[in-house]
Specification:
Blueprint: H1 2-34, H2 36-55, H3 62-73, E1 75-81, H4 82-86, H5 93-100, E2 105-108, E3 114-119, E4 125-131, H6 138-179, H7 196-242, H8 247-278, E5 286-289, H9 290-307, E6 313-315, E7 323-326, H10 328-345, E8 349-357, E9 360-367, H11 401-411, E10 415-420, E11 426-431
Parallel strand pairs: 6-8
Antiparallel strand pairs: 1-4, 2-3, 3-4, 5-7, 8-9, 9-11, 10-11
Length: 432
């Protein structure tokens, strides 16, 4: 933490401190220029007083008299050759011209204050007066100001960095725990922290990874369980076929085995589709005409219904938008699964509707079957999930249809929900 503090201070606070000192210096220079003439007038009084003392022959110890003036007014007098005064490297050219013309020239004094110079009358010498006074404390003043500013900036930086460091440590610890396999780890960060968006994104990512791993484990368990039944049935039919007494019994066993193979093919196909949807399907949305898409889905649903020996009225939408933005292939598969599910459990009627709600598209599939208990609705979108009553394994399906519907809806940026239907059964809604 100390290293981070020092780095931030060097790269952020030192330039700020230097800028503050530079601003103070420039401000002093500007103020000095604004009051330059006033200072010259005040210096003129001091020059006149000093020259009177020097020129007064009645004062034999004029140097001692100047020392008294220096002690009283906190100034320093010095008589130098005029050429030396003009050669002062710290004096500007304009001030030197003013000095040649007999005026009062001045320059800044190192350590604070000013140095004023004027040529003595009828002489090749110049009188130089340095104002000390309060200016001798300018360096101390600047030092105290810089120290206070630096301390204040250090306090502000420390107050800002300490919670940032704490949140960074929490994020690092959560990352290490995730790397060690603890996907329940979450990063803690204050809501006002700069790292709060990163921590929230990290927590969403870890929650998503945890959910995916849990889903994969459940999927593996479900696959093992679902494969066991048709494989056991195949093994049983194979033994019966081997021991069949008549060709008719053998053909019956072979037909049963063929049905089990079809179930296995359906299960594998659904698993492959679900796996591709959960990874990265070739999702390609476009404007798809609604009528042809729904007509094809309804046609296939009616064909499957007749093949299954069911007699259910499937009602087409009364009104629909001209087109919907979607991936036609995957949306058609999702609608086929929903309609197949509705036909399987409906008593006599299934209704399909599609509408636009703002920028979103809503598709509802209603049936007049037994419905779904509220506590089971969300769970039905998980793979291999079935509920009791009329929705047993014997009623058909491999338990992946609604899981595929949910994945398709999510890839479209929407969701799939189960609610009560106006027909008395279940309503499945796909919104995106």
């Amino acid at each position: 933490m100390l290293r981070l503090f020092l780095r931030l201070y060097v790269f952020l606070m030192l330039p700020a401190t230097a800028a503050f000192v530079f601003f103070m210096y420039v401000t002093d220079q500007i103020m000095a220029q604004l009051h330059a003439e006033e200072q010259r007038a005040r210096a003129g009084v001091a020059f006149d007083r000093a020259e009177r003392v020097i020129a007064d022959r009645r004062v034999p110890d004029w140097e001692g008299r100047l020392k008294e003036i220096e002690a009283t007014f906190r100034v320093e007098h010095d008589i130098v050759p005029f050429d030396k005064a003009l050669a002062d490297p710290f004096m500007s050219g304009d001030e030197k011209e003013l000095l040649r013309a007999g005026g009062i020239a001045f320059r800044d004094r190192p350590g604070g204050g000013q140095v004023y110079v004027r040529r003595l009358r009828d002489s090749d010498r110049a009188l130089r007066i340095e104002w000390v006074g309060a200016y001798e404390y300018v360096m101390i003043y600047y030092t105290i100001i810089v120290a206070l500013v630096t301390a204040a900036m250090c306090a502000i930086l420390w107050r800002w960095m300490r919670p940032l460091w704490r949140d960074l440590e929490s994020l690092t610890a959560a990352t290490v725990r995730i790397g060690q396999g603890d996907f329940g780890a979450r990063a803690q960060a204050e809501r006002a922290s700069l790292l709060a968006p990163i921590a929230e994104a990290f927590n969403r990512m870890s929650a998503r990874v945890q959910a995916l791993l849990r889903s994969h484990r459940e999927l593996e368990q479900g696959v093992a369980h679902e494969l066991r039944t048709p494989l056991a049935q195949l093994k049983f039919d194979l033994e019966l076929a081997r021991s069949a007494a008549t060709p008719g019994d053998r053909d019956e066993r072979f037909a049963s085995m063929a049905r089990d193979v079809v179930d296995l093919e359906e299960l594998v196909g659904e698993l492959l589709l679900l796996a591709s949807l959960r990874e990265a399907p070739p999702y390609a949305p476009s404007e798809v005409p609604a009528a042809p898409l729904l007509d094809e889905v309804l046609r296939r649903a009616r064909d499957e219904m007749r093949a299954a020996g069911r007699d259910v009225a499937i009602e087409a939408p009364g009104a629909m938008p001209a087109s919907v933005r979607c991936d036609g292939k995957y949306l058609a598969r999702a609608l086929a699964n929903v309609l197949r599910n509705a036909v399987r459990y409906a008593r006599s009627r299934v209704s399909l509707s599609i509408e636009r709600s703002g920028n979103r598209t809503v598709i509802n599939v209603d049936d007049d079957g037994p419905g779904v208990p509220p506590a089971e609705r969300q769970r039905l979108f998980e793979p291999f999930t079935r509920i009791g009553g009329s929705r047993e394994r014997d009623s058909g399906g491999v338990g992946l249809g609604l899981a595929i519907v949910k994945s398709v809806a999510e890839w479209h940026g929407g969701e799939a929900l189960i609610s009560d239907s106006p027909l008395g059964g279940a309503r499945i809604t796909i919104t995106w």
